[in-house]
Design goal:
α11 (196-209) runs antiparallel to α12 and α19 (368-378) packs antiparallel against α20. β1 and β2 form a beta hairpin. The chain has helices at 21-27, 32-38, 52-58, 74-94, 102-105, 108-117, 121-139, 143-148, 151-164, 169-183, 196-209, 214-228, 236-247, 254-270, 280-291, 298-314, 324-335, 342-358, 368-378, 387-407, 414-427, 432-447, 453-462, 464-470, 472-478, 491-494, 516-526, 534-537, 553-557, and strands spanning 5-10, 15-20. Strands 1-2 form a two-stranded antiparallel sheet. By secondary structure, the protein is mainly alpha-helical.
């Protein structure tokens, strides 16, 4: 063997071997990982056959050496990591239950962490397998395993399931949590009692699952958590995860249920529990829940919450500083509502964001998502509004798009263009102007490399003649297999499209039962329908000393359409 090596003579069986320094370090008493890290040039393990007399001496040989990851050596590091995992599998297979040495068991927790970082089903299953082996070792009388079995070890297995992305992850994590809770009641296994992190991991797992009753399950686990005792008291993260689960559900009362949780947090905090203080993430999730609830009064309620946050922040609560996500959620609430004249409401909120950012609140900086959400508020005028009001929706949408281009906050994405095409379809009358605006929009979209599937779908659905004309060559080539997709188009047209994915439309669950207390709350909120909130009512004065000014009406209309931008009070 080349490199640093040593000669070892086994006197009992006249065994002569050449060993790498990592194995010698183990024999001399150094821990396997320490030996691996201190080795100047880590050696690859040597596969040898031993006599029965010498097998016991080397059954706990050190794992392959592991070095710090380098950018130019990732492939080599991965191969060593795989060797380490295979080494552990071999030790588990060849060692009877109850006889694993402490030196092998010390490797289990770091290996479980590796499996958790794999973010895969196989990684989660392997992490759980290692946890089961430690438990079996403890049951088999292995004192080292009893000392090693802990809540931390179980939490690593929970984390592996939470990160796996498997459809079974929430169920498997819940099973493991219940097992921890029941088993820890035995005096011999009290050291695996679930703690706050255990419950929070499972709650978050349900919140991310997207299943129909995820919010109910997450809230049930939160209730169980409060009953568990002092070791598992809920904290802000726990509550935030449940509120986030409600934001992704499709039941009618999800917003009032989420708000009840926030009120519960406020009560606990005022009662002296500082670990459950609502923060900006709490209210950000609550605003998101209201914005997607589609109930009467939702945009007005969002503005009330946003104003309350602003008041508390100015009073000294730094944790409640409104950010861009909070304002964008409020814009979304207006955009998805059935309110009339909502185009002016979303534009005023967007102006307020600009004003705060110019005044120094960088957290309120608008982004492309903010402008796209505001465009969406112009894309769906309500029934009963006349042609002049439809035209005003289009004028405001054009102004928003031009402001985005000039603001420096980002460039329009495929979603921005797709939303503006929806504005053109719903707000402009058929004719030459509509045709001209759509053509120019598509030219801009191609120039920016943002022709995504969403743009093509809007074009085909609302402007079939233009679709057939502008994509005639591609339709002849690819149209026989269905609609032309962005992948069929020149790469230059779609070069900047990223993150596009199909998201199925969610429908409200009409069969979900609503508690009477929530029904009365929804009715009370609904009474504010038709009113303007603080931000949507206020027309922010323009600051002429900044680089993010609203363009003049003639600037906004030069390349887009003929007419004036009119915003009346």
């Amino acid at each position: 063997m080349r490199g640093r090596c040593f000669l070892l003579t086994a006197t009992g069986g006249s065994l002569l071997m050449v060993l790498p320094d990592t194995v010698l370090a183990f024999i001399s008493g150094a821990p396997p990982l320490a030996a691996a890290r201190t080795a100047a040039k880590p050696q690859e393990p040597v596969t040898c056959r031993f006599s029965s007399a010498s097998t016991q001496l080397f059954q706990d040989a050190s794992p392959p050496a592991r070095t710090k990851r380098k950018k130019n050596n990732s492939q080599n590091d991965n191969s060593k990591e795989i060797s380490w995992l295979k080494w552990m599998d071999a030790r588990l297979e060849e060692t009877p239950i109850g006889e694993l040495s402490s030196k092998v068991m010390k490797q289990i927790l770091p290996i479980m962490n590796i499996y958790a970082k794999q973010r895969s089903t196989k990684g989660a299953e392997n992490a759980k397998r290692l946890l089961d082996r430690i438990f079996d070792e403890a049951e088999g009388g292995n004192k080292d395993a009893k000392r090693m079995l802990s809540t931390k070890l179980c939490n690593t297995a929970l984390s592996a399931w939470a990160k796996s992305g498997d459809v079974r992850a929430n169920a498997e994590a819940t099973k493991l949590l219940i097992w921890m809770s029941k088993t820890s009641r035995e005096e011999s296994h009290s050291q695996i009692k679930p703690n706050t992190r255990s419950f929070s991991t499972v709650i978050d797992c349900w919140a991310r699952s997207g299943v129909k009753d995820a919010a109910d399950k997450a809230e049930a686990i939160l209730a169980l958590m409060e009953k568990e005792g002092s070791d598992a008291l809920p904290n802000t993260v726990s509550f935030n995860s449940v509120i986030n689960a409600h934001s992704k559900s499709n039941v009618m009362d999800k917003a009032v249920r989420a708000e009840a949780l926030v009120n519960r947090m406020e009560e606990l905090y005022k009662g002296g529990n500082l670990d459950v203080k609502p923060d900006v993430w709490t209210y950000q999730s609550l605003l998101s829940t209201w914005s997607t609830s589609k109930v009467y009064g939702a945009p007005q309620r969002c503005e009330e919450i946003l104003k309350m946050m602003d008041v508390k922040y100015k009073a000294g609560d730094a944790d409640l500083k409104p950010n861009g996500h909070c304002f964008t959620a409020t814009i979304n609430a207006w955009s998805k509502s059935l309110e009339k004249d909502k185009a002016r409401s979303v534009y005023r909120i967007l102006q307020h964001m600009n004003k705060l950012y110019v005044e120094g609140n960088i957290d309120a900086k608008p982004n492309v998502q903010s402008y796209t959400a505001a465009l969406n508020g112009c894309a769906h005028p309500e029934a009963g509004e006349n042609e002049a009001e439809f035209r005003q929706y289009f004028d405001i949408a054009t102004l928003i798009l031009e402001e985005l281009r000039m603001s420096g906050f980002g460039q329009p994405t495929y979603l921005t263009y797709a939303t503006f095409l929806q504005v053109c379809a719903n707000c402009l009358p058929d004719g030459d102007e509509k045709d001209r605006v759509v053509r120019r929009t598509l030219d801009e979209c191609k120039r920016d490399g943002q022709i995504g599937d969403a743009v093509l779908q809007r074009l085909m659905a609302h402007f079939p003649a233009l679709y057939n004309e502008l994509l005639a060559e591609h339709i002849r080539k690819y149209g026989t297999d269905g609609p032309v997709q962005s992948k069929h188009l020149p790469k230059e047209w779609r070069r900047n499209v990223s993150g596009e994915r199909k998201t199925p439309a969610t429908k409200r669950d009409q069969n979900a039962k609503i508690k009477k207390m929530y029904i009365s709350k929804l009715k009370a909120i609904g009474r504010s329908r038709g009113a303007r909130g603080f931000y949507s009512k206020e027309m922010v004065s323009r600051n002429t000393n900044n680089n993010h000014q609203r363009p003049r009406s003639d600037e906004a209309t030069t390349d887009w359409y003929e007419g004036e931008v009119i915003i009346k009070e």
